[in-house]
Write a structure and sequence with these properties.
- The complex is a heterodimer.
- Chain A is α+β, with helices and mostly antiparallel strands.
- Chain A has helices at 15-26, 90-105, 118-124, 127-136, 187-191, 253-265, 294-300, 304-313, and strands spanning 2-3, 6-10, 31-35, 42-47, 52-57, 60-65, 71-74, 113-115, 144-147, 160-164, 170-173, 176-179, 183-186, 200-204, 210-217, 220-227, 245-249, 270-278, 281-288.
- Chain A contains eight helices and 19 strands.
- In chain A, helix 1 (15-26) crosses helix 8.
- The radius of gyration of chain A is 21 Å and the shape is globular.
- Chain B is mainly β.
- Chain B has a domain at 22-49.
- In chain B, strands 2-3 form a two-stranded antiparallel ribbon.
- Chain B is rod-shaped, with a radius of gyration of 17 Å.
- The two termini of chain B are 32 Å apart.
- The chains are: A alpha+beta, B mainly beta.
- At the A-B interface, helix 1, strand 3, strand 11, strand 12 and helix 7 of A face helix 1 and strand 1 of B.
Chain lengths: 316, 68
């Protein structure tokens, strides 16, 4: 029986998790990665009381219990975002709903250090909540409204605003899929759109700006600025993802401290924070509890994988 | 009135999108990562493997694609 000290919950195609497992293997850590697309290949029994999780993978038996299990690295959804999936069989529907619930139930391992605990992620993934916390700790935020009508909102029809979805939008129909980036829109466009069907977020348009990605792993902070041809990118930089550079920078100490604080105040141990630097002022945009980071290891040489493993290996 | 702005401004593309070609690699359950079938070296350290590059890398279950 193999005692599991670090349990990793992921997906087979999540290569970011490969970085963690490789680093943990090099450190001779006792870890197990389970992939939510392979549950059918595992044999799983979870008992309560002193919680005990028995997992058999390829005839190899693993056990995670309150004594052995020190940390859980959670790279899975806390709820399913895809609102439309036609033609799923009963088995597929059962698989999706019940295994997702199984993952949620792992929060019974209350003595383990979570990165991140789904309960905290559930709260922290809400944009308006994040902004409230950011303001509370003294980070400047763009003026922001969540609305489904602009009738009572004094907009300038010729001014620019940033429009974004409240949650990830992945719309599917037939063989097409649509994704919504943060987009520059005019006041007039907002005034002439039928917004009542769904709420959206509008924000003050800050330009010129430089996007910053701040990855916080407990008290460690890794920051890059995202530039194209030496300057910031107008609108959502992800539309230019092949043409931008990620340059490591140091944040001012007080901003760095506030980034650590917001992650911590939201009950997280990891967060990918988006900031904007506009006219020498740092603005908080959002924090991603399930944020990606592997591209920063590759492109900018940031040792985020090591920082995560350091954190997972420190007993609570 | 026009359509909802979230629909109007959405970036639309064909599905299925490019799925990663993992021919020549296998997932090692014990190690917890993909390896080259021949050399057994980690896939993410293989120069010929297109590793995740941005947070919008299509093949990742990234921050915007979690929950699928």
């Amino acid at each position: 029986m193999n005692k599991v000290e670090i349990l990793i919950i992921s997906d087979t195609m999540d290569f970011t998790t490969d970085y963690i497992c490789l680093e943990l293997q090099r450190r001779n850590a006792s870890y197990l990665r389970i992939n939510r697309d392979k549950f059918q290949d595992y044999r799983i029994v979870l008992g309560i009381g002193e919680p005990v999780l028995n997992i058999t993978v390829n005839s190899k038996k693993y056990i995670a219990d309150n004594q052995s299990l020190k940390a859980i690295y959670y790279r899975a959804p806390i709820y399913l975002h895809d609102t439309f999936k036609p033609n799923l069989s009963y088995d597929e529907q059962l698989y999706r709903s019940q295994w997702t619930a199984f993952l949620r139930n792992l929060v019974l391992f209350e003595n383990a250090k979570w990165m991140n605990n789904p309960i905290s992620t559930f709260k922290a993934e809400n944009k308006m909540v994040q902004l409230k916390y950011a303001r509370k700790i003294g980070l400047k935020c763009p003026r922001t409204l969540l609305l489904n009508s602009v009738e009572e909102v004094p907009l300038d029809k010729d001014a620019n605003y940033i429009m974004k979805s409240l949650d990830t939008v992945l719309l599917k129909q037939n063989d097409k899929e649509s994704f919504v980036y943060s987009t520059v829109v005019t006041g007039e466009e907002l005034m002439t759109s039928r917004l009542t069907v769904a709420p959206l977020v509008i924000q003050e348009y800050l330009y010129p700006k430089v996007d910053l990605r701040v990855t916080v792993v407990e008290d460690k902070v890794f920051t890059v600025k995202i530039i194209k041809d030496g300057i910031g990118v107008e609108g959502d930089w992800r539309k230019e993802k092949e043409n931008v550079d990620f340059i490591e920078i140091d944040l001012p100490e007080d901003i760095q401290k506030k980034c650590i604080q917001i992650v911590s105040h939201l009950g997280l141990s990891f967060g990918g924070i988006d900031l904007i630097l506009n006219n020498e002022t740092y603005y908080f945009i959002e924090v991603n509890p399930t944020g990606e980071w592997a591209w920063l290891v590759n492109k900018s040489g940031l040792k985020i994988d090591r920082a995560i493993c350091d954190s997972l290996q420190v007993s609570i | 009135m026009k359509e909802h702005l979230l629909k109007e401004k959405a970036f639309t593309y064909d599905v299925p999108r490019t799925v990663p070609n993992m021919a020549g690699y296998e997932f090692d359950d014990e190690k917890g990562y993909w390896v080259n079938q021949t050399s057994k070296q980690p896939c993410i350290e293989d120069p010929s493997f297109v590793a995740p590059r941005t947070k919008k890398a299509d093949i990742e279950t990234g921050e915007d694609r979690k929950g699928e």
